[in-house]
Design goal:
The complex is a heterodimer of chains A (800) and B (475). By secondary structure, chain A is of the alpha/beta class. Chain A has 26 helices and 29 strands. The chains are: A alpha/beta (800), B alpha/beta (475). Chain A: GO terms for molecular function: 3'-5' DNA helicase activity; ATP binding; nucleic acid binding.
């Protein structure tokens, strides 16, 4: 590393890059600068009692003052201001104020991760000390030693925990009665993370908690602290069940922020003759590899960098690539590089967080596990490998660089993917005001019913509980279902009580509707790895899969499931290969719940269906050549079935003639030899497949969805609709409302998809990763046909 | 109304995992009147282990007519393979099947289907089944289905449905061990016990898993009796048996075979005459203690505190009595640390907090926790449940067959709809409770009298003294 540490401005100055970046070829496409923002202060004494204000000895930001004022008036409050804007201070100061009024007052502060709890505990206690308030906050979670537990329950003024813990602790609420009785403040930090399936579990767990607080006579005020989302008031209402005043005028200062858009370099040898416009994203290096090179360059110039990738494997691979890139860099040298993700053991993660804070590591490649507010000090730069899927997430990740008023650098390295390329072409999209909504679907009965069962174990359910689990009719149906299933006795008039095996709370997995955890073993050494969910095992840890973990390659030997505690057995290996899993999918037993008849044989449906996904085989691929090694091999695994929500559009047979009429003969796709379909049918199938892909890929531009929570299927003749059709479905049992929200916004999503597909620069009939191709496709992106996709979407849009 | 039938049901998984010795051991443990297995090929394996004339039934075998399996006074067990033969029940009533007690109909025709997405539970097969049950039956019937777990019980209209097969509904988040024993009673109440294959044969010994069991069998030790008679040196020669393990295995076998307690230490074991107690509640997370039985060992006086409706009445009377009786002597409950003691404390906090201080001052002792978790004694018995331990020590139980869960359910039924039909026979329950309390006293005395055995190579004071074991419900 050179002795002179340049400023970030210098490092990323195009002129400097041309001189110092290895084989620089103009990857830096443009930069956006966000100006610094001045702080807006209010005197602490204007909202706090004199003693606290004096002890604090500092002014407050205007949003802190506003929130404290609302809380003092008795409101519930949602604070939606930027990272590092002092949100912790708001609820900690307010707790100090409550404690002054009532020395017995206690609080429950809930964080989305254990890592964050530990981090915030220190910050809260520091503030208590500074204020001279006789109060302590202490964490109570799965890691708390059993001898501390009764002490914390009985004495800690503020108990810090998480929802997975609360879900379980509620079973023994009597032990918590002193805390519950005196609880005056309930805090949900980073509440924007409670969305989708996880959000539903949190919402219902919180209702169970509030029901018991109510039983013990407490009615605490609620503070939600959230990153910027489109619907803070609505989201807080969904999560907490009560109205909340929103504070979102940020009074904290901010340094200048540079955002660089960095297009990966061209790697395809045949691309040499093409102009920029003619280049396909597929001819460029992958985003992870480019991110690794850019991060290595920054690291070698003394810029501590946090790089976000989209998968656990991605962090592992990029970390290796960055070490290599640093070695081969003209300024060549050694860098400390670590991967970070939730699969790593706790100790490993703590040590990386510490190294970041101490400046002992140059680059950390992380999944979104470090997106939340864990205090890792100030990194100089963040690099995002691919657009994280939402603007909300994008700004969270970008916000990790340059805390305080220092200048911060962030770079987005787009993938060759539809959304990423769209953003590269239209960076103003990121700067638009409307950040996505956080979706929590309380109508989901599968999640609801499990929490009703737990609630009945905590206290018998009566009609009065419709306040938490209503309307009464829904609660009655859930009680009847569980009673008929032999797991509840009684009724709402007399009290319905749980009657199954002990602790139904253990059946709730906070992160999906159903989720069995598989532990990980290694046959030829030790491995300390967090357990894996079933879906991940079938997808990435099937027998024969090659995987990287903490820098070591492993091959999956066996998946053992017919035992009480299932596990995956790995063997440490060393190969120059990786594996790609192939899957196929069926949708059956479809049931329409809502429909719009568009006339002419077009019918749009929302409903339920069973999705069978079969990870049937895998290919081993040579890392160096990218070529398969040997034929595909069977995984030996059964299909994964889920009953979930679907949206589908049934199309008339004769549509096909119209579409074919618009496609010139020489544009027809050639079906592969083994296909029974002719040219025309294959091309049409490509149109349906393209429409399905396109809508799933582009939906996040309109709705707050993570498209990895969705899937799709298209076919020329489905055995149940007896027609051409494409389906979009939720990827978890019971559904989370994603597919149904596409039904509700079908026209907007279809129009945006059509526009994007039609105007894609690739100009290829088969499309490209920027318009039709998907890295999640189980069919290797075949067939896909862009003109047919556009024609089909046109025909549908004509009807809407 | 009298009589009862013991039906033992082996899941296919269980039979295929068990050795003949284990099967034999499990049969002697349950002593069933009738044995059921799922698959025809398992019947042969079972027959090898069954010496007696005990009837067996294969639930997956087709059969045209109703099969009468067993009768005991006013209790009958029959099996049907198809809905068509349900019509024959009428004829059976005229042919000796009791109409005054209960007839149990075993089949695989009804299965419980929990549909969370549509918020309903269906009983698949119900329509055809109901239609086929004759209208003019005079007796009372319970329909046992092998398509539901043994704990399953629900009234579907006029059909009283009881599950019978371990592991039948694993997808409902219930994992059941492999063998169920159902006591089919004349009053229609079914008491179930479920056990796993590991609790039988050599596997039932302390520190013996499948590998060591295999090693023992190969070395000629085929039964617990053989192990109990073994020489320490013989076992120590075997792969996987260190000195300490060999000793523990032999001691565990001896304890079980001789029906004695092996006691390692006396750390914290109370000396003075205790008060033994047992509580009956309305469920696992109780909202009410409705019966407390207490036996004062110093006077041998037994007291029963009963509250049928008023949630705190039994508790209040008990505490008031205890306050003046117990002094500095301990209150003893089996598994009290996990259940009785915290439940009493919670209920006091909720209903009569004035007694919380009294309760706080009382010395509580849980012999189960002391023996197992604190590792102070080795208990005989196939499991460490009170009934098994007491029976192994020679306690002659009154044979009520009622489990805590079944009693709680009966109480809930009465509470939900107090009327003549649901009213419990209170005196009988008080007798059951007394029986349990006396069994506890018996076990306690056996522990107190057992001579101490020094465990090989370990200083007894070092074991367990610094072990802090959280409550089961801690997370």
């Amino acid at each position: 590393m050179s002795e002179y540490t340049p400023t970030t401005d210098e490092v990323l100055d195009p002129g400097t890059l041309r001189e110092s970046y290895p084989d620089y070829e103009g990857q830096l496409q443009h930069t956006q600068t966000l100006p610094a923002r001045e702080a807006d202060h209010v005197p602490a004494s204007s909202v706090l009692p004199a003693r606290l204000a004096d002890a604090l000895g500092a002014d407050l930001y205007s949003h802190q003052g506003e929130a404290l004022e609302l809380l003092t008036d008795g409101d519930d409050v949602t604070v939606a201001t930027s990272t590092a804007s002092g949100k912790t201070w708001i609820y900690t100061l307010y707790f100090a104020l409550l404690k002054q009024r009532n020395p017995d007052a206690r609080g429950i502060f809930l964080y989305p991760t254990k890592a964050l709890s530990a981090d915030q505990e220190a910050a809260i206690n520091d503030l208590f000390e500074r204020l001279g308030v006789d109060a302590t906050a202490e964490t109570y979670d799965g890691d708390t030693p059993s001898d501390r537990r009764p002490l914390i329950r009985d004495r800690a003024d503020v108990v810090i925990s998480n929802f997975a813990g609360i879900n379980v602790y509620l079973n023994s609420h009597a032990k918590w009665r002193s805390l519950f009785r005196d609880c005056e403040l309930l805090v949900l930090d980073e509440s924007h993370t409670y969305t989708g399936i996880h959000g539903m579990h949190v919402a219902w767990t919180l209702r169970r908690l509030r029901r018991l607080l109510d039983y013990y006579g407490a009615d605490p005020q609620v503070v939600c602290s959230t990153a910027t989302i489109g619907n803070p008031a609505d989201h807080s209402r969904q999560i907490t069940g009560s109205e909340s005043a929103v504070v979102d005028e940020d009074g904290s200062p901010r340094g200048r922020r540079e955002i660089a858009f960095w297009q990966p370099r061209v790697t395809d040898e045949e691309a040499g003759a093409l102009t920029d416009d003619g280049l396909l994203p597929a001819m460029r290096q992958g985003a992870n590899g480019e991110t690794a090179e850019l991060a290595a360059h920054l690291g070698l110039h003394g810029v501590q960098t946090l790089a976000f990738t989209r998968s656990r494997q991605g962090t592992e691979i990029a970390a290796k690539q960055a070490v290599n890139a640093a070695r081969e860099h003209p300024d060549g040298g050694y860098l400390d590089v670590d991967p970070y993700h939730a699969g790593l053991s706790k100790e490993k993660r703590r040590s990386i967080e510490y190294a970041l804070k101490q400046g002992d590591t140059d680059i950390v490649f992380t999944t979104n596990a470090l997106e939340l507010g864990i205090d890792i000090g100030s990194v100089d730069a963040t690099v995002l490998s691919g657009y994280p899927g939402t603007r909300q997430s994008f700004w969270q990740q970008v916000g990790r660089a340059g805390r305080g008023t220092s200048t911060a650098l962030s770079a987005l390295v787009p993938r060759g993917d539809a959304i990423d390329q769209y953003i590269l072409d239209n960076p103003e999209y990121l700067l638009a005001d409307d950040v996505e909504d956080a979706v929590v679907d309380l109508d989901n009965d599968a999640v609801y019913a499990r929490h009703v069962l737990c609630a009945s174990a905590e206290r018998p359910l009566t009609r009065a509980d419709a306040e938490w689990f209503g309307p009464e009719d829904r609660l009655r149906r859930a009680v009847e279902m569980w009673r008929d299933a032999g797991q509840m006795t009684g009724d709402l008039d007399r009290g319905a009580q749980y009657d199954g095996p002990p602790r139904p709370q253990a059946d709730i997995s906070m992160y999906a509707s159903t989720d069995e955890q598989y532990s990980v073993r290694c046959t030829n050494g030790d491995i300390d790895m967090e357990p894996l969910g079933r879906d991940r095992v079938y997808r990435e840890y099937h027998p024969g899969a090659l995987t990287l973990y903490d820098g070591q390659q492993y091959e999956v030997q066996e998946v053992v499931e017919d035992v009480p505690r299932p596990y995956v057995e790995l063997r440490a290996v060393s190969t120059r290969e990786y594996t790609r899993t192939l899957s196929d999918k069926q949708i059956r037993d479809i049931e329409s719940q809502r429909r719009i008849d568009l006339g002419g044989g077009f019918v749009l449906h929302a409903g339920m269906g069973t999705v069978d996904v079969h990870y049937h085989s895998f290919k081993r691929i040579d890392i160096d050549t990218g070529q398969p090694v040997g034929p595909p091999q069977a995984t030996g695994l059964e299909p994964l079935s889920l009953r979930t929500q679907l949206t589908w559009i049934r199309l008339p047979e004769r549509l096909l003639d119209r579409v074919l009429g618009e496609i010139p003969d020489d544009s027809m796709l050639d079906p592969p030899e083994e296909s029974p379909l002719g040219d025309q049918e294959w091309t049409l199938a490509g149109g349906l497949h393209g429409a399905e892909h396109g809508m799933i890929k582009l939906a996040p531009l309109t709705l707050r969805l993570d498209n990895s929570d969705m899937g799709g299927l298209s076919t020329l003749a489905h055995p149940e609709t007896h027609s051409p059709v494409w389906f979009i479905h939720d990827a978890v049992e019971g559904g989370v409302g994603f597919a149904h929200s596409i039904y509700d916004n079908f026209e907007a999503v279809a129009a945006k998809t059509r526009e994007r597909v039609d105007s894609c620069d690739c100009g290829r009939d088969e499309g490209c990763p920027a318009c039709l191709m998907s890295s999640q496709c189980g069919n290797e992106n075949e067939p896909l046909h862009r003109p047919a996709t556009t024609a089909i979407l046109d025909a549908v849009l004509d009807r809407l | 109304m009298s009589g009862q039938i013991g039906l033992t049901v082996y899941s296919a998984d269980a039979v295929s995992r068990m050795t003949t010795a284990q099967l034999r051991d499990s049969l002697s443990y349950f002593s069933p009147d009738v044995v059921a297995v799922a698959r025809p090929q398992h019947e042969r394996q079972l027959r090898q282990a069954l010496s007696s004339e005990t009837p067996t039934v294969v639930t997956e075998r087709t059969q045209r007519t109703v099969q009468r399996l067993y009768s005991s006074a006013s209790v009958d067990l029959v099996r049907v393979a198809g809905v068509d033969s349900l019509g024959e029940l009428v004829a059976l009533e005229g042919d000796g099947v009791s109409v005054s007690g209960e007839t149990y109909v075993l089949s695989d025709l009804l299965s419980v289907d929990l549909d969370l997405v549509n918020l309903e539970t269906r009983l698949d097969g119900r329509e055809a089944y109901e239609a086929a049950v004759p209208d003019d039956l005079s007796g009372s019937y319970t329909h046992l289905t092998t398509e539901a777990n043994p704990g399953y019980r629900n009234d579907w209209g006029s059909l009283a449905v009881q599950g019978a097969m371990p592991g039948a509904n694993e997808r409902q988040g219930q994992t059941a061990p492999g063998i169920a024993h159902l006591r089919l009673r004349a009053d229609g109440v079914v008491c179930t016990r479920t056990r796993s294959p590991e609790q039988f044969g050599l596997r039932a010994l302390e520190q013996v898993g499948e590998t060591r069991a295999q090693t023992l069998r190969e070395a000629g030790f085929r039964s617990r009796e053989a192990v109990a008679a073994a020489d320490l040196t013989d076992l120590r020669e075997l792969t996987g048996f260190g000195r300490e393990t060999a000793r523990t295995v032999i001691e565990s076998a001896t304890a079980t075979v001789e029906g004695t307690v092996r006691r390692y230490g006396d750390e914290g074991f109370p000396g003075a005459d205790p008060v033994f107690i047992d509580i009956e509640t309305d469920g696992l997370n109780p909202t009410m203690i409705w019966l407390i039985g207490a036996l004062d060992a110093s006077t041998d006086e037994y007291r029963s505190f009963l509250a049928r409706e008023e949630p705190a009445a039994a508790l209040e009377a008990f505490l008031s009595w205890l306050q003046h009786t117990v002094g500095s002597r301990p209150v003893v409950a089996y598994n009290g640390r996990s259940f009785d003691f915290p439940v009493i404390e919670e209920q006091l906090a909720e209903h009569c907090p004035q007694y919380l201080d009294v309760w706080d001052d009382i010395w509580t002792f849980d012999p189960y926790y002391w023996a197992t978790t604190r590792d102070q004694a080795l208990l005989p018995g196939r499991t460490n449940k009170l009934g098994d331990v007491a029976a192994a020590l020679g306690w002659d139980d009154a044979g009520t067959g009622l489990t805590g869960a079944a009693v709680a359910r009966l109480f809930q039924r009465w509470q939900a709809n107090p009327c003549e039909a649901t009213e419990l026979d209170w005196e009988r329950h008080e007798r059951y409770c007394e029986d349990d309390v006396r069994a506890l006293a018996y076990v306690y005395d056996a522990l107190a009298e057992a001579s101490r055995t020094h465990r090989a190579g370990t200083d007894t004071s070092a074991t367990g003294s610094d072990t802090t074991q959280g409550q089961l419900s801690d997370f």
